[in-house]
Amino acid sequence: MRIIFSLWASILHLWIQIGTPIFPPVIHPMLVHFPIVLLYGSVLTGLLGLLWRTPDRFFDRSSFWLLVLGLIAGIVASAAGVISEQFVKWTPTTIALLSAHQTYAVLTGLFTILALISRIIARYPRTSQSRRAWSLASTGRGRQTLLSMIFSIAAVVMITMGASLGGTMVYQYGVGIHGVSYHTPAWLSHHQP
């Protein structure tokens, strides 16, 4: 286990060394909206798929691929978060907030992976009247189930809590905000009383 943690620390250190000079400090807020909207979309289309069965399983397929894309986008946003946190001024409050934010991100990823695994395991029922239903690489797998929906909803709850905390960090505590000053734009100053 020590080897795994050492390897992970080395990979993280290398990523920070490579990414910090390349990406802007605000790379995480620029990318984090993608996993949020993709996971919400997956749950919405998954619910539509459970309620409205079409012959081609359109909503079911859409939900599956939105879940896959949400996981990929979450990994990219998390990697960007590692870069963005290098520019944060560290205080006890910042450390506590970022730790909780990261915990929500990890739980989001865990529930998303569990939802995908439960979908990959689940088979579509065979229907004699229609052609073979869509499946993951024609194996008959990838069906939305109640368990995968529960995991997907849990992922959405976790990403919502993490996003709320992320907004609180920026707007209430100023995490990642450097030297921002407010000034009235020239076009707006003419309209003020």
From TrEMBL:
Pfam families: DUF2231 (PF09990). The keyword Oxidoreductase does not apply. Keywords: Membrane, Transmembrane, Transmembrane helix. The chain crosses the membrane at residues 29-52, 64-84, 104-124, 145-165. Residues 27-177 form the DUF2231 domain. This is DUF2231 domain-containing protein. It comes from the Bacteria. InterPro entries: DUF2231_TM.
